[in-house]
Predict the structure.
Amino acid sequence: MLRAMLGLLLLPAILFSSDNSSTLPWHIKGSLSEACSCSVPCRCNFGGKPAPHPYCYSMYSYKIEKGHHGKTELDGLKFGSMDARYGRTLYIDQRADGAQRAALNDIAVDLMGLKDTAQFYPGQSMAHIATRYADIVQEADKKSNHLKLGTDGEFRAEYIIGRDGINPVVVKNNTTWAIDEAIKANTSLFSYQYGRNRFQMKDTNSNQGDFEYASSQYRKQIPVVPHCGR
């Protein structure tokens, strides 16, 4: 009985380990919402290093409009991360069932490089320190975007309107996030607290854009999640 109980306790850690990435084909399409600790427009997005800080803490989520992992449907689900000083915390939609959670974890391994523990710049490591199942709120409209990772973190941002006074500033082919067009925004709130990663900021950079990824494009290649000054 004790052995069986221990096996049940260890199951989630085994199932969602970044060392057990599946080889099943997957495809996802949807929208990315992201904010970081850099000032607008974030020099990381233009091939530079973080500013005004020597680090770039990034909170983001992928909202899947249409997607699958093998035969597991992922429509409407979300997953994301908080990358900060003490490492990366992966967030998976708490609405996902067991098969969907495993599928989202596998996709995250391919996209984010969860096995990578290198120091990318002073004071920040991308070691995978935790996986959290949370209510992920990801919203965007014509004027703003908003992301909330359970009760741990949240950002709100307003799009930066261009010289026509109507349309937001859009950056094409940025050097970090794998989205064709990144709408630039400025945060009014950017806060997080889980474990040792804790901060609260505002007037920082945000990106909003659409994505379409497939395992055939990104598996075993450079992750689509950026690391500044790489």
